[in-house]
């Protein structure tokens, strides 16, 4: 067990107290934040702004943690999946998705997930533990280092876990990304399975990043079957929270809709979708299901998906078909299992 203090794990206040306890001036905390989050230093020794004595003295008491890259897989379509090891031996996955001029990093917020969505492989792990804020942020730092000289342009909280079920750490991670790493709020999207009260709390407590809702059904009956969280927060309360979510001008909420043959892909569903999204500035991403070994659902045909899209577009709702990437390396939406079981 490492008895030294992990500087990356400390909040702004905790870092300031730590520096004070060491008898160092307050500006050292600012310098440390700069080196950890902007210069992305992996060790105290890399902080050349500090004298050798200061680096050595500090290294006796503290260190800077980093995720350990356990494996890196590259899909035929260019998607990359990183398996990262955490200090306690757990592991998580992050996925880098190239799309035209974008390089989006999909990050995890928990080890496993407790939400039990029926179409998701991560759900089979159950929740092993919440990630700490620095472990969430470190996926961006390490991912950025691994793909250098390319840079990550967008970040989505759509990997393993439900970020709003790990609310405090997810919000703290968002603050570190926007304030300390200077990543634009417009380039970050948090996706939730629908913990309705936390959506409004997010608007109050976190920087105004983009919001995505994993919707996947247009009736409570089907949604509760697919996503048990719907029994607690049915569509009415979820969509009500979305209606009340304060959006900045010209921003929209993204609704993710994984298309499952014979379950949520009918023409009635398409028409209901238009109806239930009324009054919400929205954009729908239609995601054809990615079957995995043993999955109980099927992907609708291209014609069925296009017919669904046409009806939704006819209702003046933006609807895009998002072909999932990285299927050959199980990196696509709902396929992350971090090598467990
Ligand atoms: S889809 Fe997301 S929220 Fe649902 S079980 Fe999978 S990781 Fe959790």
Describe the fold and architecture:
With 341 residues, the chain is of the alpha/beta class. It folds into 2 domains: 5-63, DNA polymerase, domain 1 (Orthogonal Bundle), CATH 1.10.150; 68-329, Aldolase class I (TIM Barrel). It is 33% helix and 21% strand. It has 11 helices and 14 strands. It has helices spanning 12-21, 27-38, 52-61, 133-146, 167-180, 196-205, 220-226, 229-232, 235-244, 267-276, 302-314, and strands at residues 5-6, 62-63, 68-74, 80-85, 91-99, 102-106, 110-112, 127-130, 154-157, 188-192, 210-214, 253-259, 282-288, 318-321. The longest helix is centred in the middle third of the chain and has 14 residues, at 133-146. The radius of gyration is 21 Å and the shape is elongated. The model has no long low-confidence stretch (mean pLDDT 94). Residues 113, 115, 117, 120, 122-123, 160-162, 193, 214, 334 line the site of iron/sulfur cluster.
Summarize this structure as a short list of keywords or feature phrases:
single chain; 341 residues; alpha/beta; DNA polymerase, domain 1; TIM Barrel; 2 domains; ten-stranded mixed β-sheet; two-stranded parallel sheet; binds iron/sulfur cluster
Query: In CATH terms, what is the architecture of the largest domain?
Result: Alpha-Beta Barrel
Mean pLDDT: 94
Number of DSSP strands? Answer: 14
Count of alpha/pi helices: 11
H and E string: EHHHEEEEEEEHEHEHEHHHEHEHE
Radius of gyration: 21 Å
Q: CATH homologous superfamily name of the largest domain?
A: Aldolase class I
Name every ligand kind in the structure: iron/sulfur cluster
Query: Which of globular, elongated, flat, extended, rod-shaped describes the shape?
Result: elongated
User: Approximately what portion of the residues adopt beta-strand conformation?
Assistant: 15-25%
Runs in which pLDDT lies below 50 for 5 or more consecutive residues are none
Total discrete domains: 2
Largest sheet: 10 strands, mixed
Q: Helical residue percent? A: 25-40%
CATH class of the largest domain: Alpha Beta
Structural class: alpha/beta
Under CATH, the topology of the largest domain can be stated as TIM Barrel
Sheet with most strands: strand arrangement: 3-4-5-6-9-10-11-12-13-14
**Terminal Cα separation, in Å?**
26 Å
